[in-house]
Amino acid sequence: MDAPAFDGTAPRRNRRKVSRKNYDENAMDDLIEKQLGGNSKKKYRTKQDLEKETETEALIALSVGFPIDELLEEEIRAGVVRELGGKEQNDYIVVRNHIVARWRSNVGIWLLKDQIRETVSSDFEHLISAAYDFLLFNGYINFGVSPLFAPYIPEEGTEGSVIVVGAGLAGLAAARQLLSFGFKVLVVEGRSRPGGRVYTQKMGDKDRFAAVELGGSVITGLHANPLGVLARQLSIPLHKVRDNCPLYNSEGALVDKVADSNVEFGFNKLLDKVTEVREMMEGAAKKISLGEVLETLRVLYGVAKDSEERKLFDWHLANLEYANAGCLSNLSAAYWDQDDPYEMGGDHCFLAGGNWRLINALAEGVPIIYGKSVDTIKYGDGGVEVISGSQIFQADMILCTVPLGVLKKRSIKFEPELPRRKQAAIDRLGFGLLNKVAMLFPSVFWGDELDTFGCLNESSINRGEFFLFYAYYTVSGGPALVALVAGEAAQRFECTEPSVLLHRVLKKLRGIYGPKGVVVPDPIQTVCTRWGSDPLSYGSYSHVRVGSSGVDYDILAESVSNRLFFAGEATTRQHPATMHGAYLSGLREASQILHVANYFRTNPKKPVQRYSGVNMTVLEDLFKRPDIATGKLSFVFNPLTEDLKSFGLVRVFFDNFEDDPTNRLQLYSILSREQANKIQELDESSNESKLSCLMNTLGLKLMGANSVLDTGGALISVIANARRGRSRTHVVAGQCIIP
């Protein structure tokens, strides 16, 4: 598993060995340009030049996640070639790799299909189109926040409307992509800010502050990482997290390097043994925890037998709990590391100035309504409806990106209920906790040569309390330290007074630096997180709990009825618990929504059922108390507005069927208050005159009950809810109709 999205670089097995040099992602441009010979438009190249270029482009595509000589499963499903395994497939792969390399050489520009035609023979026109369209609509090229993309984003949405619930990385990624596809998009966010669990706290004065990450912190692995692409587009430098991570014992003394190395070696060997044990146990391993197996093996092989070695061993256990945001007693021994084969290579980096720079860039230009916690999501063949307090939001489709913790709490009511298969996956997956104490000091008393340092604890039960510190001075703009709290300690942290927590962490710091003659001052400002009790997250990030597996991530990602879609770090089997996993899931679902919209457009004969939650009973109840009744015509309107342009419904009785309520013909139409007033002015006239005015003068068309439920379901729902005294507002995605 990659280091978690919620924070850091601490790997699952040990502390990463990386160099001190700052990493500048912009150097990728020069590297690729050099590898491609600096002239992708060169018309006359030798066969050797072409072979070298093709090989280089294949390696670049490989770094992005494409196999060298195979198709992705997504490409096969998309039908990019007519026959698998033949010459056409080989040619397609060469063209695909070329397009990927071309865009990666300059991610700040919008790569056009015509630019590819300049460098690829017209004999391969069908492959150019197939490869370009696949890469574009699946988020492999032309994604991100480059200001040069603006001319290529449609000004008005024509593909349909989508509500995105949540303005975290997944929601923002999807919203921007959907806008570029031509959808009307509205993002509904419960917080007063974008970012979700990625939250940069600006500590200090407004003019001089330190940017400290209280949530997602580190870009984990730059190879193929979309967040690295965003940083390049914004010209934001990246700071490679440095190797030097000294450990201090509970008395504040530096841990002996030999003892540290020996225990770390033994710890890693035990993890290797876990793999062997679960292979022998086969299916039985699904029922036991990683903690149980590790402790059994530790005793069996005599690892960390004395008290000092045990403290060191506990530090590695705490590091493991941090990487998974869960207690080892909850992690599945069989599948806790199921995503290891997919982890992204390359260095782990901090973003200079804080992750808020990415978040703000992603949120720019996206229609977002803040402070709207979602209570209910309704979905059906006729569309979707989102209820937030006193407001209703309606669209064709909805993308739900709320954290797994919120889904576990059943904080949002789904109508109809989620499929049992999906709800079971939600219940099985784990959603753990990581907390932090962020401190801004008057000076960098710890020195500027460290990015991390660790501390051992006296008892196993407290092993995760302030076990690791991140020093943000090199990237934050101020002398800031962040202490991490993992495992059981993170759970107790939630109900401990901040003053007590600060006292404990300062005691630990002074125990380390006091004997060196370094004075540890009181911090200027302190912030303690409470992610577990946050009603918009209820935790930090996901893990595979005992009884669960990677399949549950796939189930959570499944759409429902082609109307309700899901994204977020807990919906990606390959990259869970990472920031880039959340972002990629947003791109994935934007592509899926586009695919569904295209299907609906090419299958117009498919019957459309009425709007979810609106039925004949609701319609009949409205006309039991009409706002206006004149002859055989009855009118109902939204009681919350007197606007003459606002719409309502009219019902017309025909012949003498009203004498027999069980056998009467009644037709309906949608009209404005202004039109209703014109009909009402004919109060003394006959029913025939009024009907003639409605149909001939005003040009309104009458329809049966089923038709009005289909076409006017949203309007009926709004009027019905308003009449119930709920004072709800009607908002259509992409139009932002808010009073």
TrEMBL record:
Keyword Cell wall biogenesis/degradation: no
Entry's family note: Belongs to the flavin monoamine oxidase family.
Record lineage: Eukaryota, Viridiplantae, Streptophyta, Embryophyta, Tracheophyta
Chain positions covered by the region annotation Disordered: 1-32
Keyword tags: Chromatin regulator
A molecular function (GO) term: oxidoreductase activity
One Gene Ontology term from the biological process aspect of the record: chromatin organization
Organism (species): Arabidopsis suecica (Swedish thale-cress)
PROSITE patterns: SWIRM
Highest taxon above the source species: Eukaryota
Name of the protein described by the UniProt record: SWIRM domain
Domain SWIRM intervals: 51-152
